[in-house]
Write a structure and sequence with these properties.
mainly beta, 5 domains, Pectate Lyase C-like, about 5% helix, eleven-stranded mixed sheet, Jelly Rolls, 2 helices, 54 strands
């Protein structure tokens, strides 16, 4: 297990005096490359490298050791080519973390070489801040299966004799919590300090053979490419790779490199002969929803419980026309059922905008899924979308269309099952039901009388609305005298409805009636469901005709004549009766 480290140390010593080519410009502690440059000598890289402005850096037929935290950056116009070479981290990630399974077949385990009969002491150190409290170790001692409760951040297992080749030590955390190991040391029980062939001083846990555990820790160096990164017949060890451009890798080993991180617009091609191992998460490649991942049949992933790739989506939101709309989503990877509601702006971030997995290409060792690739097929259910236009007692269901198959867009606007009511016309009518005024010929109505008004509305939306209008006098802006006070109707999707009501005025002059569609207060934008204003044709309101002119005398004279005739008849009848007596 020391062979890789020893070779790296030797190479560092041998190449310590290597001089970088003179056409490399060093500025502010960085190596700037802006032309085509090829390095063919074993080299230790201790400075950041920036390949810019159409430059190309080729690492060819050599071994390169990269010191901690060095970054190799390639801009969008430039290239990094690694051909028949090794790029090794001087400080690779070295811890191990379990996947969190409890069943015997998927327990986390490390292999200890101990093919001798001497008793062995194996000291495990946990990754801070975790510990071995309530962790159970399982191993074979002689011919027996043994379990032992562990505790603390450092624990030593003393095992009586090894197996024919060595010992598997399986670990199970409390409630299946994944156990972690930072370092492992091995020596003979009651023996000297690591004084045997198979003894080992404290060593990174990742250097041991392990199963159902992933490597843990920060990558020793990073390659960040916005342009092109090409590797062929090469080994990359212990470094992280991220790209917003294009990656092409073939016939190469990627050890403690994964997951390779892709921007949403990135492409990656993994050709034949690519081998991943010891990725630091449960997948080898991580992309966005639009990342193009081309994994050839001849490429091999880490395997086991480590999947080939994941695609993730973060910051996805739903936008509704109203606040406090509640919904439910089923079919997501993490949650069997997710519930939330829209805020005051009508927006709701799914899972608070946190990143979620929407696609998984399962491990080649997958035995638990029928499909090679799982893709999220989430369905959104509207559970409560009520406004003043569709209250519970209106007989109109929730707005929003009931349910919706979700896509992977960054924002999904809910437009199904929404009404949209607009004005077609509003007209003041005469007694014959015709428009009262035309052009400058204003119809006349006496104060105290009322005029019939018809408002015609059209619902261009996909849901019904129980809605009303309100009106003001055009000249004064005060609330108009209309009957009923708030004319209303229920208008279905695609329907046209006429609302009839009466208008009375108390002000002399030419005026119009200005009416507004009353939209729900729950709306974020008051015009989201349509609405707006419309005005009638002008009406000339005049004073009621007075009875003091001559026309008022005729009925009065007729009444007097009738009264006089009746009075005369009564007197005449009374006189005749007296004569007869």
């Amino acid at each position: 297990m020391w062979s890789r480290f020893s070779s790296i140390v030797c190479m560092v010593m041998i190449t310590a005096l290597t001089i970088l080519p003179i056409n490399v410009i060093s500025q502010s502690g960085e190596i700037i490359i802006e032309s085509d440059l090829t390095w063919t000598e074993d080299t230790t890289i201790s400075q950041n490298i920036r390949v810019l402005n159409g430059g190309t850096l080729t690492l060819s037929n050599a071994e390169f050791v990269v010191e901690q935290d060095v970054n190799i950056f390639v801009d969008g116009t430039s290239n990094l080519i690694v051909n028949n070479s090794e790029i090794d981290s001087l400080e690779p990630p070295g811890g191990l973390v379990g996947f969190g399974y409890c069943d015997e077949a998927n327990r986390s385990g490390v292999w200890i070489d101990w093919p001798i009969s001497d008793s062995v002491s194996i000291t495990l150190v946990s990754i801070s801040p975790s510990s071995f409290d309530f962790v159970t170790a399982y191993f074979n001692e002689g011919q027996e299966n043994v379990s032992e409760e562990m505790a603390g951040d450092r624990y030593t297992l003393e095992i009586q004799g090894g197996g024919s080749d060595g010992i598997w030590i399986d670990l199970v955390g409390p409630n299946c919590y994944p156990p972690s190991i930072s370092t492992i040391s091995v020596k003979r029980t009651n023996g000297g300090d690591f004084d045997c062939q198979y003894c080992s001083m404290p060593t990174n846990a990742a250097d041991y053979v392990h199963r159902n555990m992933m490597v843990h820790g920060s990558h020793g160096f990073t390659i960040t490419s916005e342009g092109s990164f090409i590797a062929n017949n090469s080994l990359i060890f212990g470094g992280g790779v991220s790209s917003t451009g294009m990656i092409s890798i073939s016939n190469s080993v990627l050890d403690r490199v994964g997951p390779i991180i892709l921007n949403n617009d990135s492409d990656i091609y993994l050709g034949d002969g690519v081998f991943f191992s010891n990725s630091t998460d449960d997948h080898d490649v991580r992309g966005g929803v639009a990342s193009n991942i081309n994994w050839s049949g001849g490429a091999t992933g880490t395997g086991g419980l480590t999947d080939m790739w994941e695609k993730r989506l973060s910051g996805q939101s739903l936008t509704f026309d109203a606040s406090f709309v509640t919904y439910e989503i089923v079919g997501m990877h993490k949650y069997p059922k997710y519930t939330n509601f829209s805020n005051e702006e009508g927006v709701s971030f799914i899972d608070g905008g946190r990143e979620r997995v929407v696609e998984i290409a399962w491990s080649e060792d997958n035995t638990w899924e029928e499909e090679r690739i799982w893709r999220e097929e989430a369905i959104l259910f509207i559970t409560d979308f009520r406004t003043a236009w569709n209250p519970e007692d209106s007989g109109i269901g929730d707005y929003g269309g009931g349910q919706l198959e979700m896509n992977w867009d960054q924002n999904i606007r809910i437009t199904n099952g929404i009404p949209r009511v607009e004005w077609l016309s509003i007209v003041a009518l005469d007694v014959d039901g015709e428009q009262l005024s035309n052009a400058d010929d204003y119809g006349t109505v006496s104060l105290g009388d009322s005029v019939d008004v018809e408002a015609v509305l059209y619902n261009t939306g996909t849901a019904a609305a129980s809605m009303a209008i309100n009106c003001q006098e055009g000249n004064t802006g005060v609330t108009a005298q209309i009957s009923p006070s708030f004319p209303n109707t229920v208008i279905g999707p695609g329907e046209q409805k006429t609302i009839a009501f009466k208008w009375r005025s108390s002000v002399i002059g030419i005026d119009t009636l200005n009416c507004s569609i009353l939209t729900p207060i729950q709306l974020v934008d008051e015009f989201a469901f349509g609405g707006g204003d419309a005005s009638t044709n002008p009406v000339n309101w005049v004073e009621q005709v007075s009875s003091s002119d001559g026309s008022g005398m005729v009925p009065l004279l007729i009444a007097l004549l009738i009264s006089a005739s009746i009075g005369g008849y009564v007197l005449f009848s009374s006189y005749n009766k007296d004569e007869q007596d």
